[in-house]
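Students often ask why we bother predicting the structure of a whole assembly rather than each chain alone. The short answer is interfaces. A chain on its own may look different once its partners are present, and contacts between molecules only exist in the joint model. In this exercise we take two input lines together and write out one structure for the complete complex. Read the inputs first and try to guess which parts will touch.
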Amino acid sequence: MNRMQRAAVLLALINKLREGGSWCGETHIQKAVYFLEKLSGTSIGYDFILYKHGPFSFELRDELTAMRADGLLDLKVQAASYGPCFIPTELGLKFMKRFPRTMGVHMRTVEFVTSHLSSHGVASLERLATALYVTEEDKEAGKGVDSRAERIHELKPHIDLPQAKQAVKTVDQIIKQAGARS
Amino acid sequence: MAKNIHEIRDPIHVFIRMSTEERKIVDSAPFQRLRHIHQLALTYLTYPGATHKRFEHSLGVMELASRVFDVVTHPDAVTDEIRELVPEITNPDKLKYWRCVIRVAALCHDLGHLPFSHAAESALLPPGWDHERLTVEIIKSPEMQGVWDSLTPPLRPDDIIKLAVGPKKVKDLRFSDWEAILAEIIVGDAFGVDRIDYLLRDSYHAGVAYGRFDHYRLIDTLRILHPPANAKDGKKGDQVSREPVLGVEEGGLHSAEALLLARYFMYSQVYFHPVRRIYDIHLKDFLEAWLPGGKFPIDVPGHLSYTDNEVTAALRQVAVAASDGPPELARRIICREHFKAVYQRNPEDVELNPDAVNCIYGAAVAQFGSENVRMDSYTQRGGGPDFPVLTPDRRVVSSLSLSQTLKSLPVVAVDYVFVRPSLRDGAAKWLEQNRSSIISEAKESES
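Now the answer. The structure tokens for the assembled complex follow.
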């Protein structure tokens, strides 16, 4: 996938997140792209490490900045105390439509991911994405809910065990539904 | 009695102080090599004063790193919640250890730079290598291990590596919240002291005022904070991540704005000056032709054997040879026969096709031949100018909600196409006639 195609997929994802009611700050996009990357079966091309609020891609951060430079995205603050949100520009929406085949390949997964994540806030997305990260970390071992929750708490001590367990259960459901869908 | 603290005069920080133990690192061969690596590559061909080296920059980063460390760990600056989330901050032994680590990491953060701090690492190093990876190799080398072991307390190389290189470049090491904050103090996007020092130092030596800002005020107001609340996180139990991050008190917001404006102006006026950029490209072309196999060595002794001095001597020697190939490549730099910009990024073209520069470059190569055309393209990295700010009423909010200046700060993006000087007029005419047919609307390829 080249840079233009990636930009088109990101615009579609951001658009769908917003339609689903997401505030669509950087953390929302980072975690949604992580789910997209892991559930789509075809890599979009971002490397994720465990960093800010869970899985984080520096390449994706750079890409969002480049898309602002190209006039495809705007960064807006809509309320005093809230972090900024990303909004596709008119140009961005037009640009996205020029990539119908790329959209054809990725749109179903984009819709699946956004339908599950749009309603979540930063703290919740951090837990879910970290739960997916630890599930992927030792996929072969097929670790149970408790051991994965403990791993989340070890990696992110500010996430307590009950929250971590709930996140693992939710992620297992999402993975199951994604599997049934494909 | 022998001195334990040593002072070095510095034009930016007046005095830089270091311990006898830190001087062991400064006296090591990898660090002394930095005396011979220009901070701004061949920028001195455009801004003659810009001849400063990575050596003094690294000392400056050490000085600033510990200033920030002392501010953000001062008991008056730390809340109970942060003490709970970052327990290291309440342990005097750990604080002492990590203060040593952050100073040493700051000293070492640029050890892996290639001659002329060259940015074209992907062309001049084997796949998968960059200067950060070389920095890691040097920190882990037997010579430096001896230095780490001899310090009191001995320092763990992995801890130095984490803070010197940061999470972006050492994906195999996992960072705790504490380590992530300390790495951010050095290499962070918003307030990293690497950036603070290079903006101040580069503007001082280049003779431009753009890079100056009140770093004293900024550093004094840095704090470890929680990120801002988020609109859709208002539901109970799902408010804000409790992960601590580096932010600033509202009193330092104007200094932070000034830093980010300084970055914008230094990038657009100095670092991405078209003549500076084409010299970088010519140097890369020369090095690819001159180096054995077209690459710099990646073993530590091999890496340390190359500085700007060897390359400059070679450029001068090769430039006087009377043949094509490397001599011509050297003459482009030594005799100032550099290519000229014929195209640069503009909003109209980018609106039609964000990849306009590649369209122009491809057409120019087809028209004038690849040996006569060069391209440069760069877009600012990192995130937006969004960081947490602590208000006087103890709320933590986004910097963008308080600052109109930051909201309007543009992203730096430059694109250039250059041609051989003798072709410039013809190329400019050709471009004027064909521009609209060359830059087509971006769309999916048929393949």
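Check your guess against this: DSSP finds eight helices and four strands in chain A.
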